[in-house]
Amino acid sequence: MAKPKVLFIMGPTASGKTDLALQLADQHESAIISVDSALIYRGMDIGTAKPDAATLARYPHALVDILDPTQAYSAADFVADASREIDQAVAQNRLPILVGGTILYFKALADGLAKLPEADPQLRSELEAEAAQLGWPAMHAKLAELDPLSGARLKPKDSQRIQRALEVVLLTGRSIETFWQEQAEKVLPWDIVPLALMPGDRAELHRRIALRYDLMLEQGFQSEVEALRARGDLSLNLPSMRCVGYRQMWQYLDGELSAQEAREKAIVATRQLAKRQMTWIRGWQGAVHLDSLRNSEQLLAQTLRQI
Question: Does the 5-113+184-306 domain belong in CATH 3.40.50.300?
Fold first, then answer.
């Protein structure tokens, strides 16, 4: 008996993933499941380019607006939640369409997760305090000494991954890299159809990124971040506030950056994110690459042929 198909729509930011998913939903009895580490948060709408309320009402997206920005969410959480949503869609004879740009989540679902030790809240607090005092480049140097493999792989400003790698090596005496290498192959109950929306023109993608950020500003992104800051329980140490755009706007509101600097840094950070996403996707074996800059009818026709 053939396994049910599950469609992955992966791509860099501003590549038109959501638009394609909505067009597919008009053609197929389907269930859209978000694969985005920012869209999970309530109250973070403009800066994440979250579909508006009318769109979400017409095309419900699972795993959108499921957490408060104070809460953490891991790849393991995603795998559990997405697996449940996929099974539910399959039981209802709907095509699961997983769409987003958090490639780590896609890989965790497809390949399985390494059996990493659980986070230790006390150790995490100690590392955060140390980082606040010394800075993340110093923490990166510490990691390079304790775990040369991770130190070589991670960049000095990659605070989230540096912190996790330090936690693992301090808790276990082992490099996090060795856990990844032991990762077990997963036998999935579905057949994954991986589609990669990859822009054929890098300059056009960069233009779209800049236009989208300026549109966010027009839509009230500054007010959105002001409201988040006013809560008093959020900070730049939280994963939610490290999201591209939010960090730079927060720094502007703190007086660390001018408005122009915040805009430029946010756009550059988004370009860098897109570059990382494309690097991950290029390494995905068997992915069907589609030029995301083609007209939407061509893109839809190409996608329908895959399913």
Answer: yes
